[in-house]
Write a structure and sequence with these properties.
This protein is an alpha/beta fold. It has six helices and five strands; from the N terminus they run βααβααααβββ. A five-stranded mixed sheet has the order 2-1-3-5-4.
Length: about 150
Amino acid sequence: MAGPIFVDTNILVYALDAAAGEKQVRAREWMTLAWRTGRGRVSIQVLQELYVTLTRKLRPGLTPPEARGEVRALLPWQPISVDSSVLESAWNLQDRFALSWWDALIVGAAQAMRCRYLLTEDLQDGQDLDGLLVVNPFRHTPDSLPT
């Protein structure tokens, strides 16, 4: 079943991090699929995390204007904000699946956007979170997803 693909922060960072080696190559393959098919999705939380990581944690990091450019480039993916519905959903997900708070917000946002897949290495590969399938992009190739 094809569907939108929610991309977690770590995958976006790997795609931009030249020091990430093979992870950069694989992250870029996934990003190409997301752009080519128009299936990529993110949340405002992901964009916030991306900006902070690119400007403060990545070595060498990006300048604020460069990082802003990377964040702005993802705006066509229709980022969702955390509203009361996403918040309530995240609390439910946190309790049901024993997720960290930040991961529960990611999953809640992905579900609110009706995503079918969540690209991340932070959760259990293959886990089905009420119809949202966790895909570790370093264990699977982009052609393994239905188009």
